[in-house]
Amino acid sequence: MTAAFFRDYVIDLKARIDDLHADADKYQTYELTMELLAKKMLVSYSMKKAKGQADSLFYRRDTTSGEGTQMQQQTAYGVFAGFFGLGEFLAFTGNTEGLDEKQFAEMLTADWEYPVCAVHFSYRRKGQAKATSTRMHFVGLNGEGDAGAYLQKLARPGVIVERRPFSSNLLWEWK
Known about the structure:
Elements: H1 7-22, E1 27-38, E2 41-50, E3 53-62, E4 68-70, H2 73-84, E5 88-91, H3 101-108, E6 116-125, E7 132-141, H4 144-154
Antiparallel strand pairs: 1-2, 1-6, 2-3, 3-4, 5-7, 6-7
């Protein structure tokens, strides 16, 4: 099975998210939602600004017990920054193959061995004619060798993006 690598894309994505954090006032609107699954924990990070109103929510939830707690923004973003700092990334096509949420999470994480992150980021800077958006789902890997091991464990064609740029009705690179 062949797969497209997304390290360059994730580096650019992180730079855009860091820019939003550095100066949110230069954005007319934005919506950033990220969810990270790792070690049977879900960390959720959500920021939104529309019509001059800003809102945010940051929390983690144990996927086994369902227990959750709110997090400080800086702590939550640190988890995602660590994920974005990994050595390589593959992306999912969005094909769930009829699996329920729990089965799909176990498949994507290769039985909780690999972290996965869903990102939806849409923004329009002040003075920009139209919004820019992406909606992608990544698995974080240590490097290209780790990608080969992950693909062997996954063993499901049609689930991993094979060519870039990628776009479907459900997921897409920047547009």
